[in-house]
Amino acid sequence: MEFFDIAETWSREAISAAQIVRLRNTVEQAMKSPFYGQRLKEAGVTPGSIRSLDDVRRIPLTSKDDLRAQYPDGLICVPKSELVRMHASSGTTGTPTVVYHTQSDLNSWADLMARCMYMVGIRREDVFQNMAGYGLFTGGLGIHYGAERLGCLTIPAGAGNTRRQVKLVRDFKTTVAHIIPSYALYLGAALRDEGEDPAELPLRIALIGAEPHTEEARRRIEDMLGLKAYNSYGLSEMNGPGVAFECVHQNGLHVWEDAYIAEIIDPVTGEAVPDGEVGELVMTTLCRQGMPVLRYRTRDLTRFLPGECPCGRVHRRLDRILGRADDMLIVKGVNIYPMQVEQVLMGFPEVGQNYLIVLERDDFRDVLRVKVEIRDEYFEEDMRKLHGLRERITRRIHDEILVTPKVDLVQHNSLPKSEGKAQRVQDLRDKPAL
User: Fold this and answer.
1) 8 Å CB contact between 283 and 261
2) Any idea which GO molecular function terms this record carries (predicted)?
3) Residue 12's domain is classified under what CATH number?
4) Number of domain units in the chain
5) Distance between CA atoms of residues 167 and 170, nearest Å
6) Residues 65 and 190 in one domain
7) Is residue 22 domain-shared with residue 142, that is, in the same domain?
8) Which residues have C-beta within 8 Å of that of residue 277, sequence separation ≥ 6?
9) Which one of 310, 325, 340 terminates a domain?
10) Do residues 103 and 150 make contact, with C-beta atoms less than 8 angstroms apart?
11) pLDDT tens-digit profile of 60-79?
12) 195 in the Ramachandran plot: left (φ > 0), alpha (ψ -120 to 50) or beta?
């Protein structure tokens, strides 16, 4: 087994010892910002009061609203002259969250990302094509610098423009791509529509992330494009991509515990949940100087996976992101996550790559409608078979979410497409009728 970084080989005891030292240093650094200085003082937390990893729970939780309230620079812990990069959320629904980096922070981030890529078999001989967006979005530059740290020929293609993406892949014999899952399915379907076989592209590895997706969706990507697709997890508040990554066994994402402390809490009570139980992921940076973040509520729902990984790394494994605490839908009093619906749909070979969940209201009652694209070869069959398929999809979704949906089978390419993150839900319940 080959490793990029010696920290990948650390024992559980070595990881815990490093985390305690780095948590103390992080608390000391964070206290230099007015926000954390006051917050930690009120909680009675000092570097010296951190005696075990359990003491992390004495630190107050940090929310996205806290970061927004400190916009634009209320959380920096070094002189501005030491900052070399900032990233920000889109801010389309309000004040964006901003994260700053020193050169040391960027170096650490690039090392973590290179570690992730090396773990799944990427080497300097590979040609890497980044099909994710650049700019304030962290996904593009984060993985870009990881690829360059590995020594790969790196093509900064950016998002969208499918014809150009395919041309670059073919002309430069791209072997590794960073791509959003929904766009990977879109790209493969676009090639098939043109009578081409997506599996004939030279790609052998795809790094997928940035949006929740099911195991069924991942397998479709692999089968369609003829490659291995590895799940990535990251968020801008924790740098971006490179927080956790699958190894070649694809049985959970190793969270790099030498750089982060990960907790799983009950999103309502804030208390820790037992290992193996789903809850909200809370993250603390351990190696960031410019703007450390303590106990950040990611709103992402996941769980720690029990047992050891065959790869030999003992860094704890996270399950794939199952959804977001703030993306939960309440229909007829039932809590539903869009990922539950996708998991069912992707299990039907007749279903295409696109679907849409529409929430409506009929006589003051909630209606869950699921619009599903059907592959052309199945859509042209007789109405009895389509009716039977609709009934089977309806029954399977009901069994999963305990709510009976109205299922509409629609033709391939009839639902809105996006070359960015897929929009899977439309909530029309509060919109007045026209």
Assistant:
1) yes
2) ligase activity
3) 3.40.50.12780
4) 2
5) 5
6) yes
7) yes
8) 264, 303
9) 325
10) no
11) 999 999 999 999 999 999 99
12) left
